[in-house]
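pasting for the record
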Amino acid sequence: MPQSPPAIPGMREEEVDTPALLIDLDAFEANLDTMAAKVAAAGVKLRPHAKTHKSAVIAQLQIARGAVGNCVQKMGEAEALAWGGVHNILVSNQVVGASKLARFAALSTLAQMAICVDDLAQVAALEAAGRDAGKRLTVLVEIDVGGRRCGVAPGSEAVALAQAIAASPHLRFGGLQAYHGRAQHFRTLEERRTAIGVTVDDTRRTVDMLRQQGLACEIVGGAGTGTFEIEAESGVFTELQAGSYVFMDADYGRNLDGAGAPVSTFRNALFVLATVMSAPRPGIAVLDAGHKAVAIDSGLPLVWQRPDLRATSLSDEHGKLEFGPETTAPKLGEKLRLVPGHCDPTVERFDWYVGVRQGRVECVWPIAARGAMY
């Protein structure tokens, strides 16, 4: 059961109940506008990944700035977006199970849907789902371009799978999914360019082989916040699937540009607002936000604009900060913003976004696809 919102519009930020998930609306809108401008200049399409924000409200703001739709990973995410009025959705993942595939086919009535495969058995299952629903379903072949996760090998194996899709009466071949997830967090620009160079070569070769067999790729999708400019300039990718750019997080803040400085294309817009609940001894303050409020798979959170405060450990409901004798100690009841190490799983912990502009709550949005695991 969702909790009641921790804030109401017009409230001051320091009045928001905590832990709460804040969006700095000025930074958030700047991120949306920056990405829209970059994608338009590159002449490619943007299909942002909704696994980051899990919100039809945010998806609609992206679409209003030119995005063709959104990506999702789970059927529950697709349903939350489609029911929220998003009419073009790619499930950029493999989906297994007759009940899930029936839901996918049913959503095709509400939205333009597409899905990925990397195995002939998945093609057969989708053909059965399309036949049962009386629909023709759009299917992409996912190729492994370096992530070593899902995906068939580029080249002949991908072509054989695409041919099986094209030969299926209730399926249509829609193109390629070519996402290199690991490369998003390679720290230097040289490392990212090298990795994505291989991705581009493998993808281009596969597109050319498909074309020789009379199979055109309407979609060649991939890229993320860490590498999207490289894929955009390749001349191969038609759609970019960056997601974290809307919020950013501490881990993406560790990526470096060509000069060795932190990449500053996008601004931190997502924060966990926490309250100092205890100050038991000098040099220590304890927040009311722990593991259940902030994901730490990519490291501990940073304290926004307070480099003198360092998060040193999190337990279930406690976040421990340490600081030196020269630091002004946080006061009991003081509110602090935390920058999560990884925005996607942090969002998953909350029912509501609290949109703040210049210290005032402007909006409260539901995180409609929270918990959408299947």
